[in-house]
């Protein structure tokens, strides 16, 4: 049958079905946006040593907020979204009952109080790999990220606490069948928030995901909006003393790098160059030739 005749016949059929209240599909539904291989996202992450390993404070991240003002905070929203059955609650939005599968260990729960809401990339790990120089509003957004299906997960308290703040180089879910999904989502979350990976973490993820096949492919997530704090403000806001390498403490508000005393030391650790107006670290150093870049 020629194309023109075929098209006319299809139009007539659609009209007939429409009259009868029946929808006649003309073709298969358009394919969903192509998945992305987590290995390709991993290649886009910076490999850097962890920074600020001793000054993390959970209070730097504001938990749990009611971002949309519907009376349910982030914890409740995750429990509602990840329950495979209807949920029961009391008060404004305290989740009592439902049915949840803890992906880390395969345990099933029907009481909301028995579950932890885990940050797939823990807050302390996010801090070490870049969140230390975010604004407080960006850290709050990270801690309550409902914009990605990977960032937050309801799991058993025991598995969450066994994980702590470890990365995949030292901890993977006890349920081995979830490992590939876990690592792929770890990479996607770090990519979403433009966080770095350390060398051991990068090696482990590359080696493991290389054997995951189709399980390494996940739905693409959008980049999050990340804002960087003025470095002087960050030092002033820090609740921890920051050593200056000589046993002393740098005063709050000083325009000095709380990690390294010189550009040479920063570069040796894999940091720099820093560009004026782009990298907040620029203001920690002296731009000797006033070209807008230091630690080159």
Please characterize this protein's 3D structure.
A hairpin with a 6-residue loop joins strand 3 (94-101) and strand 4 (108-111). With 296 residues, the chain is α+β, with helices and mostly antiparallel strands. It folds into 3 domains: 1-29; 36-218, no CATH class; 230-296, no CATH class. The chain is 30% helix and 11% strand. The strands form 4 sheets. A 3-stranded antiparallel beta sheet has the order 2-3-4. It has a two-stranded antiparallel ribbon with strand order 1-7. It has 10 helices and 9 strands.
Record the SSE blueprint:
Layout: H1 3-19, E1 36-37, H2 38-42, H3 74-82, E2 88-90, E3 94-101, E4 108-111, E5 115-119, H4 123-128, H5 136-143, E6 152-156, H6 157-163, H7 179-192, H8 199-209, E7 217-218, H9 231-237, H10 263-268, E8 274-275, E9 293-294
Antiparallel strand pairs: 1-7, 2-3, 3-4, 5-6, 8-9
Count of folded domains:
3
Mean pLDDT: 81
The number of strands is 9
For the record, give the distance between the C-alpha atoms at the N and C termini, rounded to a whole number. Answer: 69 Å
Which regions are unreliable across 5 or more consecutive residues at pLDDT < 50?
A: 1-33, 234-255
Structural class based on helices, strands and sheet pairing: alpha+beta
List the strand order in the largest sheet.
2-3-4
Backbone shape: globular
How would you sum up the major sheet? Answer: 3 strands, antiparallel
Helix content: 25-40%
Count of separate DSSP helical elements: 10
Order of helices and strands: HEHHEEEEHHEHHHEHHEE
Strand content: 5-15%
């Amino acid at each position: 049958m020629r194309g023109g005749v075929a098209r006319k016949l299809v139009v007539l059929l659609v009209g007939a079905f429409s009259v009868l209240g029946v929808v006649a599909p003309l073709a298969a539904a358009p394919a969903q946006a192509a998945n992305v291989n987590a290995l390709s996202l991993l290649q886009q992450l910076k490999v850097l040593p962890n920074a600020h390993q001793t000054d993390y404070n959970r209070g730097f991240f504001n938990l749990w907020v009611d971002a949309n003002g519907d009376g349910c905070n982030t914890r409740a929203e995750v429990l509602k979204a990840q329950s495979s059955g209807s949920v029961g609650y009391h008060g404004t939005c305290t989740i009592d009952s439902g049915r949840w599968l803890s992906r880390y260990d395969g345990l099933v729960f029907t009481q909301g109080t028995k579950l932890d809401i885990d940050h797939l990339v823990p807050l302390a790990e996010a801090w070490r790999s870049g969140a230390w120089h975010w604004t407080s509003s960006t850290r709050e957004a990270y801690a309550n990220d409902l914009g990605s299906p990977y960032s937050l997960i309801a799991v058993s308290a025991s598995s969450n606490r066994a994980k702590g703040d470890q990365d995949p180089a030292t901890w993977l879910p006890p349920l081995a069948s979830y490992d590939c999904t876990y690592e792929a989502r770890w990479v996607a979350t770090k990519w979403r928030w433009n966080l770095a990976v350390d060398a051991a973490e990068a090696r482990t993820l590359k080696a493991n995901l290389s054997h995951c096949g189709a399980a390494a492919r996940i739905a693409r997530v959008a980049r999050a909006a990340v804002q960087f704090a003025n470095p002087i403000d960050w030092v002033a806001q820090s609740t921890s003393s920051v050593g200056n390498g000589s046993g002393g403490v740098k005063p709050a508000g000083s325009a000095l790098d709380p990690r390294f005393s010189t550009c040479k030391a920063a570069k040796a650790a894999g940091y720099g160059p820093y560009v004026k107006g782009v990298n907040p670290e620029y203001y920690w150093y002296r731009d000797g030739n006033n070209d807008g870049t230091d630690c080159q």
